[in-house]
Amino acid sequence: MQHHYSSLLDIPSSLPLPKVIYLDAVGTLFGVRNSVGSIYSEVASKYGVNCQPELLDRFFYTAFKNSPPCIFPGVLVAEIPMREYQWWREINRQTFTAVGAIEQFTDFEEFFEYLYTYFTTPAAWEVYPDVIPALTIWQRSNVQLAVLSNFDSRLHPVLKALDLARYFSTVTISTEVSAAKPQPEIFAAALRKYECAPKLAWHIGDSLEEDYLGADNAGLTAIWLNRS
């Protein structure tokens, strides 16, 4: 049976609670405030570059979709943050090239460094209204809560900035385990932190392919959160 809900609070209380609930981050716990394109446009304007938010949004998602997974097998842990930075810089370069604005920057590196840091602040994000109530209910039920995400290492400061870190006992991200959802390896890495059998865990996320199908194939109870 496909568990399909539009809100975390819609998950029925009759569904037996697991040992651990894993939750995706972006699109599940919080989303980009307004849109990626609007933030890119706003920050670019500070550097004298004017672009239509709608075009930036469209070309960002094209570049993002066509990029390889944000994982770096064999790379030393100390090098991962720089690899993440370079991965996102390339997506941004492609985005602003596609809208014909890349040549307008007098210092694209300075712009991107500011933009990259901006996405670690609460100004870039908004927590969905159902999140805190649902996390509170589960926490009071003594269920372990964890984040399982294809985000990069900026997720740690983002969770703190949004006052969400206090709900979660672990955070597993793709760049730290060299595997990304829907690959089963990232689910296995998250389960090992609790010595938990897949059948005793839920995974909740907004992506049908990465979250629902990935978790289901890994043996977890998969819950698709389709907010749209």
Describe the secondary-structure layout.
Layout: E1 3-5, E2 20-23, E3 30-32, H1 36-45, H2 53-66, H3 80-98, H4 108-118, E4 125-127, H5 131-140, E5 144-149, H6 155-161, E6 170-173, H7 174-177, H8 184-192, E7 201-205, H9 208-217, E8 221-225
Parallel strand pairs: 1-8, 2-5, 2-7, 5-6, 7-8
Antiparallel strand pairs: 3-4
Helix pairs in contact: 1-2, 2-3
Give your account of this protein's structure.
The chain is an alpha/beta fold and 228 residues long. The protein folds into two domains: 3-29 and 128-225, HAD superfamily/HAD-like (Rossmann fold, 3-Layer(aba) Sandwich); 36-123, Orthogonal Bundle (DNA polymerase, domain 1), CATH 1.10.150. The protein has nine helices and eight strands. It has helices at 36-45, 53-66, 80-98, 108-118, 131-140, 155-161, 174-177, 184-192, 208-217, and strands at residues 3-5, 20-23, 30-32, 125-127, 144-149, 170-173, 201-205, 221-225. The chain has a six-stranded parallel beta sheet. Helix 1 packs across helix 2 (53-66). The radius of gyration is 18 Å and the shape is globular. The model has no long low-confidence stretch (mean pLDDT 96).
CATH class of the largest domain: Alpha Beta
C-alpha-based Rg, rounded: 18 Å
Number of strands: 8
**Within the CATH hierarchy, at the fold level, what is the topology of the largest domain?**
Rossmann fold
User: What is the arithmetic mean of pLDDT?
Assistant: 96
Structural class: alpha/beta
- Main beta-sheet strand count, sense and barrel state: 6 strands, parallel
Number of domains: 2
CATH superfamily caption of the largest domain: HAD superfamily/HAD-like
Number of helices: 9
Content of β-strand = 5-15%
How would you describe the shape?
globular
Which stretches are poorly predicted, pLDDT < 50 over at least 5 residues?
none
Strand order of the largest sheet: 1-8-7-2-5-6
CATH architecture tag of the largest domain: 3-Layer(aba) Sandwich
**Relative helix content:** 40-55%
